[in-house]
Amino acid sequence: MTAPVLRAAAVTRTYAPAGDVPPVHALRGVDLEVRAGERVAIVGRSGAGKSTLLNILGLLDEPSSGSYALAGHETADVTHAGRDALRADVLGFVFQDSHVLGHRTVAENVELKLAVARVPRADRAALVTDVLARVGLTHRAGALGRLLSGGEKQRLAIARAIVTQPPVLLADEPTGNLDGANADTVLGLFDEQAARGTAVVVITHDPRLAAWADRALVLDAGHLASAVAVA
Ligand SMILES: Nc1ncnc2c1ncn2[C@@H]1O[C@H](COP(=O)(O)OP(=O)(O)OP(=O)(O)O)[C@@H](O)[C@H]1O
């Protein structure tokens, strides 16, 4: 079996606020391995530690203890600059509110991601064209981001996240603001990406996403528990 593309081992994260406030043990020893092409949903109540875990998986935060390896790199051994490069090369992010740049066109929104990922300028236009076709936004390529509908914005967010063909796609409530049809479209795009070998990890309140994933895990008070039995 192939090595996991993402491996968290005994990860804890304790927030230690200043003053008399007691520390918060947001993650209490999380083990997680995800392989290429797997679709994993992590569900949990508000305050369970989902954002904390996503921040660590996305290299936006570091564990208090334990280890996290991404695409074969032990992240504790990576320099600050190395983390930025690793994030750009290995990760795609999709957030609930899409973070689309409203005053840039759809095509520019995608091209900016390629620039950050240091893709040569000469290669960018073809990649933008290809990914906009995949998410069904070819006809909106010249439209400003702020003029898109909610579903279109989320498809643009996905286009940006997948245009570099990252080995790992992390999504935070990716269907939270969408109606059923648009949510299905988003999950269909994730399916396609997983079929291309990307590991897709979705963090959500929505138990329906557990039914979509290959594997569903429950985060409860900082513990990541066994797969949920999906009805
Ligand atoms: N910067 C911080 N300082 C102190 N405590 C924090 C901080 N960030 C999160 N927490 C606490 O850590 C715990 C886990 O928070 P986290 O945001 O990871 O949960 P969540 O599952 O994402 O919640 P939600 O679904 O409501 O966004 C909560 O008790 C929260 O109050």
UniProtKB/TrEMBL annotation:
SUPFAM superfamilies: P-loop containing nucleoside triphosphate hydrolases. InterPro entries: AAA+_ATPase, ABC_transporter-like_ATP-bd, ABC_transporter-like_CS, ABC_transpr_LolD-like, MacB-like_ATP-bd, P-loop_NTPase. Keywords: ATP-binding, Nucleotide-binding, Transport. Pfam families: ABC_tran (PF00005). It comes from the Bacteria. One of its GO terms (cellular component) is plasma membrane. Residues 6-230 form the ABC transporter domain. One of its GO terms (molecular function) is ATP binding. This is D-allose import ATP-binding protein AlsA.
